[in-house]
Fold this protein.
Amino acid sequence: MRRAAETALQARATTLYFGGGTPALLAPADVARLIAAARRWLALTPDAEITLEANPGPLDASRLAALRQAGVNRLSLGVQSAHPAELAVLGRGHSWEDVARAARQARAGGWDNLSLDLIFGLPGQTLAQWRHTLDAVLALEPEHLSLYGLTLEPGTPLAQAVASGAHPAPDPDLAADMYLAASEDLHNAGFWQYEISNWARGAHSALEVWALPPAGETERIGPVSRHNLAYWRNTAWLGVGAGSHSWWGGSRWHNVCHPRDYIAALAAERSPIAESEVISTALERGETMMMGLRLAEGVNAARFEVRFGVALAATYAEALNRWQAAGLLVWDGARARLHRRGRLLGNQVFGDFLPD
Amino acid sequence: MDSKHIRNFSIVAHIDHGKSTLADRLLELTGTVTSRDFSGGQAQLLDTMDLEQEKGVTIKASAVQMRWQAADGETYELNLIDTPGHVDFGYEVSRALAACEGAVLVVDATQGIEAQTLANLYLALENDLEVVPVINKIDLATAEVAKVTAEVAELLGVPEEEVIAVSAKEGTNVAAVLQAVVDHVPPPPETDADAPLKALVFDSHYDVYKGVIAYVRLQQGRVDMDTPLLMMVTQAKTEPVEVGVFAPGMTPVKELAPGEVGYIATGFKSVREARVGDTITDARNPAAEPLPGYQPAKPMVFASLYPSEPDDYENLRTALEKLQLNDAALTYQPETSQALKFGFRCGFLGLFHMVIVQERLEREYEQDLVVTAPSVAYELLMTSGEEVVIHRPSDLPDPALIQEIREPWMKVQVITPTDYIGAVMEIFRRKRADFLLTETLDQQRVMMTFDVPLAEMVIDLHDRLKSATRGYASMDYAFDSYRVDDLVKVDVLVNKEPVDALAIIVHRDKAYEKGSLLIRKMKDAIPRQMFEVPIQAAVGGKVLARVNVKALRKDVLSKCYGGDVSRKRKLLEKQKAGKKRMKMLGNVVIPQDAFLAMLRLDED
Ligand SMILES: Nc1nc2c(ncn2[C@@H]2O[C@H](COP(=O)(O)OP(=O)(O)O)[C@@H](O)[C@H]2O)c(=O)[nH]1
């Protein structure tokens, strides 16, 4: 972290995220040490959002309480599904009972910001099953939900199982139906969708699905992921640890993936960076659009102009017009945002904002 | 050399029976080339183009002069004329044979007589050639020397002793072939010493420095550097730039005498001015009649070539121009299509010729092409009495104006083991063929003869035949006639707009079947768009079948956080680049290979 601080002088971290792999296996005392280090080297603010990602299986009441005690204030659980058969398709080691227990114990241990991840569009999954998972999860009263459509990554066991016919191929149209059903159900349950795949329980309730957040600021909705918001607004972040990514000062880089190599590099006072990419201004603008359009708040034209010194309207006149005309984008001069219908077709739109 | 000591011959064989290998041995044996010449990686000397070596088929004829001392102690001039090895070039083969008095017929001792063996033999006999039978590959354990010798002797009606058994690969008994050529192939006929020049052009190639090089056989008269030349068919006139023989490279000589084979560099800028089959005469003392047998090159198969990137149109034109310098049979005409923009409608002698041209454009001229499915030339008799020829289906006029449509039919010979007779019948039945007869060749094999519409052949007949017979069947074909049939144009409409490049002409009975298959293939090839796209097959404005490409509903990366940015961005960039390569039909985006959907019509 000291090293990271040297790269990024004057960093003032407002969020901290323990993610990737299985950070819940860290001893709570080590978590506390890392938080202390972040406060010291990265000026982590006192009211910072500190999230920890965990699988429901290995958690127990005392560990949950200790992690909370150590200063973590947001818990993100990888739930995926309430159906044993679906969890088996995904090769997950936990059960729905593990999820329900972990959620109960977290509440008892003082956690008041709980986020749950779900996956839809699984081979063999029906719309009814999916809605049942949603119901079951809503009953746990989470503050936040992330819903991910399954993508079959080539080479994964699941992709191979589908290719070999062991599982039916997922139907993209059914996945679209599931997404829209979830969008309705969560809206009715008082959740506000603020990103393509993310919902927060609303302090206010939105009048309609995919409404612009109050005053155009996502933070005002309620318990959104402030950490992830930084990604979508394309502001700087620093990664610490093996395989972690960083974006700072016009470059993006990531560390060596294997912990052994990472430790060896640090011990030898060598840089742990495996690969680094300089991002040109044109590309940074494009990425700002590609990420920002994922948010219901969209991309704020005034902020864009302050950041890049060029007007959003002038930079992307053609793409804005085309997608506005196609009904997938809303551009009112003050901000560009995806139309509600554009949420499922974002890739069609995003590419046009990237430099050729 | 006096004509008594000249022998002009060619080698004919079914593909892979060893024609090129035998030619190499003859060149070596006569010292025309040394075996060292073969070590440079160029396995076969006569196949000059890379493509020829790769496809194992000679595309252009060539002629080599060899000198050899025969058993009688005399030295002979032996001119070996290599003929193109593919039926698409049947006319070129016939002209090359017309330049000879004899042909060495090579039959593989492990395979026996095959379709092109017979076709080539008949061509040789039509040209009154003396045939020297040779069976090859006797070094192989699987060679059936006695059986194949008997087969060949019976076919030719000669005693078995006259069939020469060789191994071209190992050089065994190859001298006997040369001796037989000297003994059995007659010398060129004696001609009147002052008969006017008649030189048959049996091939040509374009040379940047010397212009078109005409490959000639002198039937009568002499030619030297002072002979002013007249092409009797094209009426083009020129002065020789060089006169010579291939020995094996171009070697200038003072003159070519009656009966000799060599070349005349004409200085012409295009092979169109010295066409295969034309007769060169002395402009001062022209012959009264050209040699018989000339035919203008007549393309049979047509397809459109478009540059993948519209900006490359001019480059494609230049490449076609250059190719045409060397290929008198290739025709091209600019055309436009809605989706593919600017390109060329090209005519070819056959499917193989088309593939060769396409590959040369891609390799030698680095063109990235979209090639539409091949079709044939249709002859129309209009109700007005006018005769019209169309080269692409979309040009077919309103049926009300047409009295009859004629399409080209081919006569096809298939030699197959008896086990596959049923399979072969079935393939041809599906191609609208008329079955004519079956002849027994031996206990295991028959020759079947069919008449088939060329339009049915251009798609995949050869591949189907090979796969249905595990490679055992062989095939030969030639143009037969134009025949009237009940043909209709099937239009393909994408998003309600007819697409010119996708129209096909089929028999009315097959319109529904082919039309619905075609649109199903199109449906598979067209990616989902942001709106539903109907694809219809229609005849004369009446829709026969319809399928829909459903609207795209979901295309979004569901997860995108900090660590994903680069990877996800690259995915989007790739998607964008892919879209750029696609073609626009109105507001429908379609990939280039959708235009080849028709080629896959018979897959199921
Ligand atoms: N074993 C053996 N192989 C031969 C002989 N002659 C030709 N081949 C092989 O047969 C194949 C076809 O020969 P090629 O001369 O290219 O046939 P072409 O298509 O008639 O010109 C090549 O792989 C040759 O090496 C022979 O006498 N014996």
